[in-house]
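Q: Given only this backbone (649 positions), what sequence would you predict?
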């Protein structure tokens, strides 16, 4: 009888808690909203133009070299399209409910291999798609996580990374299309790091492989496909360095790669196919990292791209003498996705900047003349009026060579004297970088809210050298949070910025930074938006998917070590929730394999228990971020309403 009474009491208590939560669903029941007020129609109407911008990503040239395959979104999610001429119509080829990603054309044909998951789970399956009749065939096992598709030059083999052996290890597998559809395991991952194929040799005897342990430690191997012998040619445990392979040279005697083994930045280098042979540094006079390289099919010319303070620079490269020269015909901004046509006369690239979304351009390789092939819609907005970001550097708490360390940040300032409310957008990663890319979201906040947007690259960000990248590792984690405190100090010195109206906003690791900033600086903040953020490092490491746990332990620390576990518990926002005194909006995807939904649920519950104002949004058909337009639209409207209630008023 006593047990029944206790059970009844607990049920009543639970019902009373639920009664305090305004819970409803939206988007056909796929989104759960808790304590989020009804969004006024005026907000939805005002945001329409900003919500209807698009972008275009490059997949590859068609087999005949007359068309381009691209990825773009016309309805809810991104699909494969074909464009037949500059400025031509985008012919949609795939029509799936889930977004298509990771597409790669089979050499010698128009057959496309692509990746697709369900509900943002990131357990991508491999499909073969024939553009001629729209047919598709799943060739993976339907259960494992797959990625890193790489065709051999003759189209016979398709190498890929997969967890299919045990659901945890990042092994390398291969299809031989001359011998059926059975995948062969060619390399068992010997540890918890990530292994992925990069390129087949011209004779298909060798496979170039990258082993990624952390952002500061990656190694290059060559696998002999006949004997199974694996040879490491760059990187080591004894002297960790970043080594990213781009491909074999024309003679198959060496590999082009980026490496920071000789300095702060990742330099373009050539490495012979022996670990004991001396590599040759090529870009020793460029004080920035090389982020990508593409050789033409003949192997006698190519391009590489550097990240120079967040801006992309593309260089023409001649392998005959390692000479290079900057290509000045490209617009200022970000460049990626390079692909040579089969005749090597044209180079397709993707260009993006603060006033133009990602679009595909084609460059005549001989003359450098650039032709735009796609014109992505911008919702009728006049993007020439978009606010351009200003690069600033602000001093933080520690010193370098006797002077305060400077933290780089991009600042978007509205017109007028102000003082303007401020939204600090903190990037994820943490091994990532805020760059001046196109964002209708920031322009929306500037236009609708009159807010300035600041995107800091706190310590631990990529793009500023390997020493800067390591300043937040392990026990130094909260030093990056102190960089946000220094930014709040800097805001107080700016007459056009309102230090009394500041919000923090970020996703993934940026979500952790939002929560941690709220722990330390609630008295200086008016609002906080945490998107798929880590609330407790120990529970995060225990519950994130097996295939990525060891990769995250290298960055955040190993929770199995008692000293590190105590540190992670001490700095976790969930264990300091009593210090959070700022309205919070928590946004999550139910199927997130990286930062599980439990991270959001536990911080929301803790905030509610102490009576703190918290809005909660959970999309049941999404993962680590929202990919569906209807969900992104609802989310952006809710964020604006949240800022209007707590930041602007």
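A: Predicted residues:
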């Amino acid at each position: 009888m006593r047990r029944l009474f206790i059970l009844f009491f607990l049920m009543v208590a639970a019902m009373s808690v639920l009664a305090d939560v305004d819970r409803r669903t939206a988007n056909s029941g796929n989104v759960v909203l808790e304590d989020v007020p009804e969004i006024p129609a005026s907000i939805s109407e005002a945001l329409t133009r900003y919500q209807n911008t698009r972008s275009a990503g490059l997949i590859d040239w068609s087999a005949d070299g007359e068309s381009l395959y691209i990825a773009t979104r016309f309805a809810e999610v991104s699909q494969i399209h074909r464009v037949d001429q500059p400025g031509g119509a985008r012919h949609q080829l795939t029509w799936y409910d889930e977004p298509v990603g990771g597409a790669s054309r089979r050499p010698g044909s128009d057959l496309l291999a692509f990746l697709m998951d369900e509900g943002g789970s990131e357990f991508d399956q491999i499909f073969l798609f024939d553009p001629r009749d729209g047919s598709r065939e799943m060739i993976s096992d339907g259960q494992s996580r797959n990625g890193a598709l790489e065709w051999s030059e003759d189209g016979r083999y398709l190498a890929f990374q997969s967890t299919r052996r045990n659901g945890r290890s990042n092994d390398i597998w291969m299809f031989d299309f001359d011998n059926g559809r059975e995948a062969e395991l060619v390399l068992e991952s010997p540890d918890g790091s990530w292994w992925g194929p990069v390129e087949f040799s011209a004779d298909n005897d060798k496979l170039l492989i990258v082993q990624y342990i952390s952002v500061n430690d990656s190694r290059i191997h060559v696998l002999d496909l006949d004997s199974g012998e694996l040879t490491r040619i760059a990187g080591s445990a004894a002297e960790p360095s970043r080594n990213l392979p781009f491909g074999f040279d024309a003679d198959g005697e060496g590999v082009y790669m980026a490496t920071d083994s000789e300095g702060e930045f990742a330099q373009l280098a050539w490495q012979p196919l022996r670990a004991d042979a001396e590599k040759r540094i090529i870009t020793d006079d460029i004080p920035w990292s090389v982020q990508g390289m593409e050789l033409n099919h003949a192997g006698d010319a190519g391009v590489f791209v550097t990240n120079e303070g967040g801006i992309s620079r593309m260089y023409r490269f001649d392998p005959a003498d390692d000479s290079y020269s900057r290509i000045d015909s490209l617009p200022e901004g970000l460049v990626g996705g390079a692909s040579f046509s089969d005749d090597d006369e044209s180079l397709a690239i993707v260009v993006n900047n603060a006033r133009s979304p990602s679009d595909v351009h084609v460059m005549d390789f001989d003359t450098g003349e650039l032709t735009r092939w796609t014109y992505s819609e911008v919702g009728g907005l006049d993007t020439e009026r978009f606010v351009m970001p200003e690069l600033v550097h602000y001093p933080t708490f520690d010193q370098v060579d006797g002077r305060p360390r400077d933290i780089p940040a991009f600042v978007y300032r509205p017109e007028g004297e102000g003082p303007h409310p401020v939204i600090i957008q903190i990037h994820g990663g943490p091994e990532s970088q805020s760059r001046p890319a196109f964002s209708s979201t920031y322009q929306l906040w500037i236009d609708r809210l009159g807010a300035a947007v600041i995107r800091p690259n706190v310590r631990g960000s990529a793009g500023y050298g390997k020493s800067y990248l390591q300043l937040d590792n392990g026990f130094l984690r909260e030093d990056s949070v102190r960089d946000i405190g220094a930014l709040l100090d800097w805001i107080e010195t700016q007459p056009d910025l309102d230090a009394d109206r500041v919000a923090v906003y970020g996703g993934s690791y940026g979500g952790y930074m939002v929560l941690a900033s709220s722990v330390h600086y609630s008295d200086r903040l008016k609002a906080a938006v945490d998107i798929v953020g880590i609330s407790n490092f120990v529970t995060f490491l225990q519950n994130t998917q097996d295939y990525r746990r060891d990769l995250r332990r290298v960055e955040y620390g190993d929770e199995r070590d008692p000293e590190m576990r105590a540190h992670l518990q001490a700095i976790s926002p969930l264990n300091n929730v009593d210090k959070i005194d700022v309205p919070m909006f928590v946004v999550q995807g139910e199927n997130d394999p990286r930062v599980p939904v439990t991270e959001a649920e536990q911080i929301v519950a803790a905030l509610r228990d102490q009576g703190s104002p918290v809005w909660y949004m959970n999309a049941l058909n999404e993962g680590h971020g929202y990919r569906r337009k209807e969900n992104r639209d609802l989310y952006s409207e809710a964020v604006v309403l949240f800022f209007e209630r707590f930041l602007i008023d």
